[in-house]
Amino acid sequence: MLKPTQLATIISALLLLSACGEAEQASIQTPPIQPIDVAATPQISIADWHTYTTRLSSPNEVALRARVTGVISSVNFKEGDTVRQGDVLFELDDRTFLAEVASLAAQVKRAEAALSQAKSESARALRLSKQKAISTEEVDARVSLTAQREAELDALRASFKAAQLNLEFSKITAPISGKISFAEVTQGNTIRANDTLLTTIVATDKMYAYFDIDERTWNSQFASVTEGESLPVKLQLLGRESQPVMGELDFIDNAIDDHSGTLKVRASFDNRSGQLRPGSFARVSLSSGEQNDRVLIPDRAVGTDLKNRFVLVVNESNTLEYRLITLGNRYGKFRAVESGLAAGERIAVNGPARVGPGMPISPNSVTLTLPDNIATEVVAMTPSDSSQGLN
Description:
Elements: H1 4-29, E1 34-40, E2 43-57, E3 61-65, E4 70-75, E5 82-83, E6 88-92, H2 95-130, H3 136-169, E7 171-173, E8 178-180, E9 190-191, E10 197-202, E11 206-214, H4 215-222, E12 231-237, E13 245-252, E14 262-270, E15 281-298, E16 303-305, E17 308-314, E18 320-331, E19 334-339, E20 346-348, E21 361-365, E22 378-381
Parallel strand pairs: 1-21
Antiparallel strand pairs: 1-20, 2-11, 2-15, 3-10, 4-6, 4-9, 5-8, 6-7, 8-10, 11-14, 12-13, 12-15, 13-14, 15-19, 16-17, 17-18, 18-19, 18-22
Helix pairs in contact: 2-3
């Protein structure tokens, strides 16, 4: 049987072990508080940009075909070069055209001589008729012959002019200035008038971007815009998002398409540098210029939960809260928040990378610095991109 002193010692040891176990378990269950970068969301007044996808087109494109049938004797351009209007691109064997011109020239001279003789005889007949030395029928015949000779000469002169044009058309020139494609037909081949495709030329000094704006957006943002107003448009090529090209809106269609509920507009861009090509995929952004208050957050602060976008908001007890948000435009490394977040609320700057909702944190306050040119750094309109010409 244990003595009272031994029993007390055993009980004290058991109580001590129990307390140590509980403390160890509590230390395991309670995670350490992490220091997290936290910033208050800024708000600025900024113009809304609307972005649409399209493909560039040339203001003038020519599928070059010959006006006469013949055999190509030479090709006078380097494929892919820039040509000027009037440059001789193809030459046809012109011997048959020269022969036709020479033959008709001779026929014209013969007809001119015949007409001269007919006029002389007609004048003589008129003088003799006054002296009653020639019959009326003979006078009428000579006058009629003169008219026939005049008609014959006119017809031959028209044929001669057509032959001269055919001779001229044997040298096929560039109808516009622009970049030329490859030769579809080469030296020695026979081509048919108005049928055989020789090559194509596209004007490259300017590029057009046609796109459709939905009726609701047009009426709310651009209804006051007229064709005479120079509305700036920004263009970004695929793979060159950091180097936009500035242009302007220069065409507004005269009616809204009742099938799609959209209005077709066009932006033009100067292309003297030659960096824009017809058919290129492009993203165009335009703004009505009206300023609106927008809350901006770093792009890295946004988390994704299936189809939802969220941020982690720091409450008064320094605990993270899950907050659904609706995103708008991207401005450089920042995103506009359309709903779900107010200006001045504190958020986890680096998003849900190491933390999650319900976690207590040790906030490390940082300041979000917006670049001076953030108003011109619009990259994309996420929820309402209009896609066209993407096949």
